[in-house]
């Protein structure tokens, strides 16, 4: 493959990559799109290999840029996180991202919160997960109305008694 053809293929592939959603784009799609634009078959072994090299080079370059940008933004992000932490804590109280009052953390991912949902107060014992820097509630857990909480609380001594009995077996 001559230099002129290589340069033309490289420019076309890079143009396609720059205009693409990288979450959905594949090397195969890039190659087919470039084939259509150039009116030439890029599935031939040497051309296919060249397209792969251009795509990989582009991805490495994008990764390096992202890492460099991340390094530059780290101090800013740390300051933002500190401000977020301060805003989540009002007085001695800690609130979650949805505004629920965190009563206690049972583990790294489990906690007890008091929140409002559709105008009702709820006591929730729930697992949380992180997504995009936010802690979000999972489906794993239970939310109790104040009446249900009162019933549960009233029965805690019986629960503790049953636990001791099971442990002694």
**Largest sheet properties:** 6 strands, antiparallel
Tally of alpha and pi helices = 5
Tell me how many strands there are.
6
Q: What is the count of structural domains?
A: 2
Helix content, binned percent:
55-70%
Average pLDDT rating: 84
CA-based gyration radius: 28 Å
Cα shape: elongated
> What's the N-to-C terminus distance?
79 Å
Label the structural class: alpha+beta
Strand arrangement across the biggest beta sheet: 1-2-3-4-5-6
Beta-strand content bin: 15-25%
Order of helices and strands: HHHEEEEEEHH
Q: Low-confidence parts, pLDDT < 50 over ≥5 residues?
A: none
Briefly say what this structure is.
This protein is an alpha+beta fold and 169 residues long. Helix content is 56%, strand content 24%.
Structure, described:
This protein is an alpha+beta fold and 169 residues long. The chain folds into 2 domains: 3-81; 91-168, Transcriptional Co-activator pc4, Chain A. It contains 5 helices and 6 strands, in the order αααββββββαα. A 6-stranded antiparallel beta sheet has the order 1-2-3-4-5-6.
Features:
6-stranded antiparallel beta sheet, 5 helices, 2 domains, single chain, Transcriptional Co-activator pc4, Chain A, alpha+beta, 24% strand, 169 residues
Could you give the topology of this structure?
Elements: H1 3-18, H2 27-38, H3 45-88, E1 89-90, E2 93-95, E3 101-105, E4 110-117, E5 120-131, E6 134-144, H4 146-154, H5 156-168
């Amino acid at each position: 493959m001559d230099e002129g053809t290589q340069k033309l293929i490289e420019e076309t592939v890079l143009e396609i990559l720059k205009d693409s959603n990288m979450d959905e784009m594949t090397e195969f799609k890039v190659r087919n799109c470039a084939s259509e634009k150039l009116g030439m078959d890029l599935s031939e072994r040497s051309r296919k290999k060249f397209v792969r090299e251009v795509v990989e080079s582009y991805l490495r370059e994008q990764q390096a840029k992202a890492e460099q940008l991340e390094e530059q933004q780290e101090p800013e992000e740390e300051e933002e996180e500190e401000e977020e932490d301060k805003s989540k804590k009002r007085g001695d109280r800690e609130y979650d991202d949805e505004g629920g009052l965190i009563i206690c953390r049972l583990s790294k991912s489990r906690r007890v919160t008091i929140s409002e949902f559709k105008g009702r107060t709820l006591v929730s014992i729930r697992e949380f997960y992180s997504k995009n820097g936010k802690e979000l509630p999972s489906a794993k857990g239970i939310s109790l109305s104040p009446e249900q909480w009162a019933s549960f609380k009233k029965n805690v001594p019986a629960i503790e008694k049953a636990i001791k009995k099971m442990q002694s077996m």
